Amino acid sequence: MIDESTQNPPAADVPIAHSKVSHVDATEGDAGQRIDNFLMRLWRTVPKSHIYRLLRKGEVRVNGKRAKPELKLTAGDRVRLPPIRLEQTAVPLPPSRSLQAVLQASVIYEDRDLIVVNKPAGIAVHGGSGMSHGVIEALRAARPELTELELVHRLDRETSGCLLIAKRRAALRELHTRFREREMDKRYLALVCGRWALGTKKLEMPLKTNERQGGERVVRVHPDGQTAESTFKRLEGYGQLATLMEVSIGTGRTHQIRVHAAYAGHPVAGDEKYGDRVRSDALKPFGLRRMFLHAHSLAFIRPGTSETFSVTAPLSEELQNVLDRLANRPKLAEAVKVEKSPRVARRPSTR
Q: Using CA atoms, how far apart are residues 126 and 37, in angstroms rounded to an integer?
């Protein structure tokens, strides 16, 4: 319900330009929704970069306090909306048809409550930080009849695999509860650099997010950070080059697996932020062209039931080829050796 003592926020589908602070109360239907998604739905014509800038500057407040993008609303929360001044030409372009088609083709499961996408690497889950559109915007454009589509969780832009999207607010709230109470089984496949000799290892290292000069976000192991838990299990070794790991996470911190793997001395192959460039470059002859981190499976209790639901996203052909080439490396090495060996002329037979 909008506070009539201040200027009412404009309709969601018209250009916005108001010079006064306004307030809005979150309804039952808004409960469980992140504040950034709430603002994107309220201000459809405002660029996402502008919305995130307002959040970073602390101009959006919930119950009088600064609101971070990940803050989840509850019914009755009082949201302060800052003044906005935008040109009429600031209306963003819709997601391209090609992006919509790619993501429609990436849907691996759907029912009345959920959509599961096998997210391709290189596509952000939502717009912002230099990206006009991501998975959620493209799916909303492709499926306009689904008016309550929301991301249940996030994946890094370069991480591929299972991405869960709620089709109804009730399902979103229930799934958020599953995540919060650690009732969601999330498993990743990660190719890490070097020979992993730690066996099955649970890493419980607190993580803290810092910003470098220029605004780049970097996460570090830090005693004052948030609790983070990752369990690494060796699946396959490729000599001193790399090891394929299954990683299950009990928490979902930003860059968690990448930072924990690097802290253990075995960074994720191809990770440009936390990785080892020399060791990653050694894997390029085997076809590695991106970070090898894939959200392989999800398992949880289906919303509104007591049934266990599980889904698996297969590796892309690109990543599977990397593993196949690594598995065949002795043959490849021998073939190269034979090819490069000089030919020796046979002596004529004396018989």
A: 10
Q: Are residues 328 and 242 in the same domain?
A: yes
Indicate if 157 and 267 belong to the same structural domain: no
Query: What pLDDT is recorded for position 211?
Result: 64
- What is this structure's pTM? 0.74
Residue 2 lies in a domain: no
pLDDT given for residue 330 in this prediction: 72
CA end-to-end span of the chain: 104
> What sign results for the dihedral spanned by CA atoms 43, 155, 146, 175?
negative
220 and 76 in a common domain: no
Assess if residue 107 is contained within a domain. yes
Q: Which amino acid is at 205?
A: M
98/27 same-domain check: no
Model confidence at 246, pLDDT cuts 50, 70, 90, reads very high
Say whether both 187 and 261 belong to one domain. yes
Other CB atoms within 10 Å distance of the CB of residue 67:
23
79: containing domain: 17-90
Cβ-based neighbour number of residue 213 at 10 Å: 5
Residue of 113, 156, 271, 276 marked active site: 156
Residue 201 tokens read as 């290892």
281 flagged as catalytic? no
Measuring CA to CA, how many Å separate 39 from each of 44, 186, 229, 239, 240? 8, 29, 31, 50, 49
